[in-house]
TrEMBL record:
Residues 1-24 form the signal peptide. This is 5'-nucleotidase. The keyword Signal applies. It comes from the Bacteria. Keywords: Signal. GO terms for biological process: carbohydrate metabolic process. Gene3D superfamilies: Immunoglobulins (2.60.40.10).
Length: 338
């Protein structure tokens, strides 16, 4: 009986030893994490920080494994001794971030008390040109006007790279207008915004086309109904046109002379006639030219006083386009007999 009892106790002890919790897998590790931002722009970076990590039977964090799934098919594996990681997202969409924890025997999932989904969205912003096509004189630059609106208010800095190795830092606020000089070509400025998460991927603005205008405008004199009547020329009128940058101004120089050889030119600024006695025409003041803007409908006009019958008038006229091309000089001779 004693032998049997001892054997029974031994067997029983062996059975108890096999089932003891000390030899079974323990509880899974537990960890807590936080992301420094849940809303960023493409190209920016988030920082994941471990705020707590514990395991029931492993005291050395280096023996624990943390596997971070960033939600974009990339993972980072580190020991429990590492407490901070960064990750950059390039594409706009939402990314659920997860952390798997293991102590070699049991696996757990990290918790995110403040949220674990990173929403990546393109920064707001509307960019346009006052005129998407700008004309310029050959080998010259011209000014283009660029409009930016709805720029992110949470940007610490917003700047434009024009594509010519120059940049402009936009003024504070969500909308602005910027002027910039461009030479011939196609230009696609890029807008970069930045905050504590870093620089966002640049946004490409609509294209600006800067085209060389090498074609002069055309100009014509408009004859009044009674061209030989002096009073009909109280205003000299004409038309001008341009197929590229557009007609800008018309310039008129006006002579009058008679059959006796007496000559006058008109000073439009002084509204008076000046007798010509051989003066160097290149030294005359600018006021001897009648200048007129060309209207949207392509017309121009300059007023004249002091015309009477018995004179021959000779208006000489040219037009310039908006980049500085001038038409050839044109002139007409009209006899005033009434």
């Amino acid at each position: 009986m004693k032998i049997a009892s001892l054997l029974s106790l031994t067997l029983a002890a062996g059975i108890v030893g096999v089932a003891t919790p000390a030899l079974a897998a323990g509880a899974a590790p537990v960890g807590s994490y936080t992301l420094d931002s849940l809303a960023i722009w493409p190209g920016q970076t988030v920082t994941l920080t471990q705020t707590a990590l514990a395991d029931d039977d492993v005291t050395d964090p280096a023996l624990l494994t943390q596997t971070i799934n960033w939600g974009d098919n990339t993972t980072t594996v580190a020991t429990g001794a590492v407490t901070s990681w960064t990750h950059t997202y390039t594409t706009a969409r939402s990314y659920p971030v997860e952390v798997a924890l293991t102590d070699g025997e049991a696996t757990g999932t990290g918790t995110f008390p403040a949220g674990s989904t990173v929403a990546v969205a393109a920064p707001t912003g509307t960019y346009s040109w006052k005129n998407s096509t700008v004309w310029t004189y050959e080998s010259y630059q011209n000014l283009a006007v660029w409009n930016a609106s709805n720029v992110p208010v949470n940007s610490d800095a917003t700047w434009t790279s024009w594509g010519d190795d120059t940049r402009t830092l936009l003024r504070d606020g969500t909308s602005t207008t910027v002027e910039h000089w461009f030479g011939p070509g196609t230009w696609r400025p890029q807008v970069t915004v930045k905050n504590k998460q870093g620089k966002a991927t640049p946004t490409t603005a609509p294209a600006l086309s800067v085209v060389t205008d090498a074609t002069p405008p055309s100009i014509a004199l408009t004859y009044p109904a009674s061209p030989n009547k002096a009073s009909s020329w109280a205003t000299i009128r004409g038309t001008a046109g341009d197929t590229q940058s557009g007609a800008d101004i018309a310039a008129v120089f006006l002579w009058k002379y008679n059959t006796s050889g007496v000559e006058y030119y008109y000073n439009f600024g002084a509204r008076s006639w000046v007798r010509y006695t051989g003066q160097n025409l290149n030294t005359l003041p600018d006021s001897v030219f009648g200048m007129s803007a060309v209207s949207a409908s392509g017309t121009w006009s300059v007023p004249v006083t002091g015309l009477t019958k018995g004179w021959i008038i000779e208006p000489q006229y040219q037009a310039a386009d908006k980049v500085g091309n001038w038409s050839d000089l044109s002139w007409r001779q009209i006899t005033l007999n009434s």
